[in-house]
Fold this sequence. Notes:
Layout: H1 4-18, H2 34-46, H3 51-58, H4 62-72, E1 73-77, E2 83-87, H5 89-103, H6 113-124, H7 130-137, H8 143-152, H9 193-196, E3 203-209, E4 218-224, E5 230-235, H10 240-254, H11 257-261, E6 264-267, H12 276-280, E7 291-294, H13 304-313, H14 328-339, H15 351-357
Parallel strand pairs: 3-6, 6-7
Antiparallel strand pairs: 1-2, 3-4, 4-5
Amino acid sequence: xxxxxxxxxxQNMCQEDYSKKNKKKLGGYKHxxxxxxxxxxxxxxxxxxxxxxxxxxxxxxDRTVRRELKRGFVITKNTHWIDRNEYSADIAQEKYNxxxxxxxxxxxxxxxxxxxxxxxxxxxxxxxxxxxxxxEGNLNISARTIRNYIKNGDILNIESIDMIYHKKxxxxxxxxxxxxNAPAEKSIEYRPEVANNRNEYGHWEGDLxxxxxxxxxxxxxxxxRMTREEIIMKIxxxxxxxxxxALNKLERKLGARFYKKFKTITFDNGSxxxxxxxxxxSCLRKTKRLEIYxxxxxxxxxxxxxxxxxxxxxxxxxxxxxxxxISDEFIQKVQDWLNNYLRAMFxxxxxxxxxxxx
Length: 358
């Protein structure tokens, strides 16, 4: 698992090269006080300051101030008997006090700045899920509690955009894949049962992670079904020839170990994987190096293991990133992070831990 200096290095690279939003860091996680509410009332009603200006004066986030204004909004009449919206510090404080009573006991982590900072860092910098944070940090709270606090805006300088899997992408303009009429014997239906039930190591799923450009470098991702081990390779294009060369390079690198490590790979029906004979052909010996199988057209769920790992890769390499600009060192660190990530399915062991037990 990436810790300490390595984690910061990965995070800094992400922020410098690939982050779309560089948010201003605001200090403190304390709730707004009544004194601050009276200042908001004066600034908003009399001085006509915008929420963003008030947020700067209070050293709070713009989102926090807007939520506070909504809490204290009242409709008043001016001298011309015209309705207008104003903010009332007293009404906002009454609602705040009422909500505290309705919640019962105090927030479990709202008053603990050390734990709050730990959770924020783990989510923003280390791309971890609440489930993993609870296990690693040995926290006396549930992952659902963390998610609810973030969702409600009760604590932490975190918004939904900071959470993993926060956005559903519109596939309207997504490039259509070319379905391959694979031979019947290459259908996933004929994949060995030991691969289907994950009882044997060496059966992989593969796909490409595409960057911003339709042309240029892409990432070939391979995920082992039993252990969720991940291999990420940057290749110059999404053409079939580039995928074949990547497997050749991997075979030469591993030598005799390749044939124990790779028994089958299941791809989708994209044109980049169409020539299974070249993919299966060994560059070191006369016999085939592995068996290739294809999922049914438009059935990505049949390669769900690889799809899920690709989503985790997107935490570090978001959609729209130019793959050509990513260094091999950074890709290696993302691969290491993924293989050392604690997984609930393994009793919060990482893929590397599971591999050591084989």
